[in-house]
Amino acid sequence: MTHRPLDEPLRPVRPHPVEAAWNRPPEPAEVDPAVLGALLRRHGWQRRGGAVGRYGRWTPPGPGGSGTSLLVPETRAFPDSDDLLGEALQALARSQTPAAREVLVGLAVPSDEIRWWRDTPAGPADTASWAVEEQLRGAARQMLLAGALATRARAGYYGARHRRTAGVMLESVLVGTAAGGRRLTAFVPVEAGRPLAVRLHQALYAVREAIDYQRATGGMDAFDGAVEAGASRELTDALIALVRGTEGARIAVEWAPAAGVPEDCAATAEPVEFSPGDLAVLREAGARYLREEPSVPVRITGTVVRMRRSGPRGEGSVRLRVLAGAEIPHVRLTLDEEDYRIAGQAHLVGLPVRVQGRLESRGGFRRLTGASGVVPVQVDDAERDRLMKSLQEHLDFFEEACGGED
C-alpha cells in the first residue's frame, strides 16, 4: 500500500458554502426580516412584545434567555430596519447558544431541517456516553442515505446500487451538535438537497402508516406500496438503529422559510414517532424487502481489476470496476474459459470489456450471474492511458477491496 510522503503538502479541500462566510454574519441587505423571524421561532426563541407591525423583541430559549434580546424588524418599510437587522445579526454571531448558530446557518444556506429525537436517560449535566451519541449520528446518517437513494430510484432494497451518487448528495448536508445524545439536526440545503428532504418526509409517513396497518390487520401489504413513497430495507434498518435502546424516537422535517413548502407536502406536520414496539415489524419489513427485490438484467461496461481461477484452464472469476450500465462501483462474475481469456487479453492491453447478465440482489447487487458475451470496448489512446493510470493509482485500493471476496 502506498503512503503520502510526510513533507508533501495536503491537497486543498473544497469548503462547504457556509464555511467561507461563517466568521461573519450575513449582510442586512441579504436577510428577509420575515425569514429571520420564522427561523427564530423555529429554534425556540420567544417573542416578548415590540411595536406591532414594526419590530418584535425576541429572547433566546432556556432559563437564561431573559437577559438577552433582539429587536427584529417585521418589514423593511421603516428607515431604521437595516440598522435593527444589522444589530440583531451581530448579536446572533456573538451569542454562544446553539439556537443562535442554527438561525445563522439557516440564513447563510437556506436549508430544510431534519430533526431526530431519542428518548434515552441523560447522564450527569445532560451528557451522553460516546456510544449513545454515535448511535444517534450513525442512525441519522443511515436515514439520510436512505432518502438520497430513494431520489435515484424506487426499490425495496438497494444494496450497492446508487450509493456513489447518493453519497455525493450528502456532502452538502450540515449537521448540528447532538444534544446529550438525544437530539440532532441536519441542515439540507434547498438548492442541492430538497428532493432528499421531500422523499425522506414522505417515506417516513408511509412506513408509519404501514406499521399501523400491520398492527390493525396483521398484513404486510402496505409496505409494498410504501416503496413508491421511498421506503426501503435501508430505511427500516436506519429506523431500527435509531429506536433500538430507547423508549421511543421521533423525526421531523421542517421546510426552509426562504424557499416555501414543496408541492404535495404539508406546511406543518407533527414529528413521525416510532417506539420499541415497532422493531419487530420493521425487521420483518426489512427482510421482506431483501427477499423480494428482483434481480436486474444489465449490460455492464467495466475494467478488469482482478482475475482468478483454480487452474490454467476452465472457468474463472473476474472483478470489474463498473464504468457504465449499473450504478455500482464493482461487480463480481464467473466466466467460462473463452470469455475469461477475452477478459484477460483486454486487461493486458488496457481496454474495458462489455458483458451482459443479471445483477443479483443476493449479496447486495455485487454479483453478475449468467454472465456471457464478453467483448472488448474500443477506446481512443487518451482514454486508454487514463484508464491504465487510474488502475495503477488505485491498485492498493483494488487489492484491499478485492481481498477475500472471491
List keywords for this structure.
OB fold (Dihydrolipoamide Acetyltransferase, E2P); elongated; 5-stranded antiparallel sheet; Metal Transport, Frataxin, Chain A; 12 helices; 406 residues; disordered C terminus; alpha+beta
Give a written overview of the molecule:
Residues 1-26 are annotated as: Disordered. Residues 1-11 have a biased composition (Basic and acidic residues). The protein is α+β, with helices and mostly antiparallel strands. The chain contains twelve helices and 13 strands. It has helices spanning 33-42, 81-94, 98-108, 130-152, 163-170, 190-217, 221-226, 233-243, 279-292, 337-348, 381-393, 395-402, and strands spanning 46-47, 55-59, 70-73, 111-118, 174-175, 183-189, 249-254, 272-274, 296-308, 316-324, 330-335, 353-360, 367-376. It has a five-stranded antiparallel beta sheet with strand order 5-6-4-7-8, sandwiched between helices. Strands 9-10-11-13-12 form a five-stranded mixed barrel. A hairpin with a 5-residue loop joins strand 10 (316-324) and strand 11. Helix 1 runs antiparallel to helix 3, helix 4 packs across helix 6 and helix 4 (130-152) runs antiparallel to helix 8. The longest helix is centred in the middle third of the chain and has 28 residues, at 190-217.
